[in-house]
Amino acid sequence: MSDSGLPPLWEVRHSNSKNLPYFFNTETKESRWEAPEGVDLDKLKAYMAESARKPGKIRAAHLLVKHRGSRRPSSWKEQNITRSKEEAIHILRDYERRIQSGEVSLGDLAMTESDCSSAKKNGDLGFFGKGEMQREFEEVAFALEPGQVSDVVDTASGVHLIQR
Fold this sequence. Notes:
Layout: E1 10-15, E2 20-25, E3 31-32, H1 41-52, E4 58-65, H2 85-100, H3 106-113, E5 124-128, H4 135-143, E6 153-155, E7 158-163
Antiparallel strand pairs: 1-2, 2-3, 4-5, 4-7, 6-7
């Protein structure tokens, strides 16, 4: 049993789409929302509370536009995304212009236009630390000042605008 209170081979991970912790077995690759059998719940609660307070975590929101070359070219809005990467960047540039002009906030735009399920939370991804997001996304997010919006960020998921 580890300091987390989890049985061997289990670890706690964070779902970016649901902004919730989940449990992952590193050997079988099983993931689940419920704690695995044999967990020490008191240790797990203490571990989770401590990890949420660790320095080095930031909170960010994003607006994602997927394209046909994205890792999963579908979303809650569109079952089969067929736009090109260039079209996705063009769409995102228009959103960027609207945000910078003060016409709309990233969060409000994300609610209706983002291809990520975080749209229902104004694009909010919650708190995350280094190593929890795709490298390209993480590098930009950690370099932003609070309140700052990024330029277009290209990842395997699609193209993003990120706001810290």
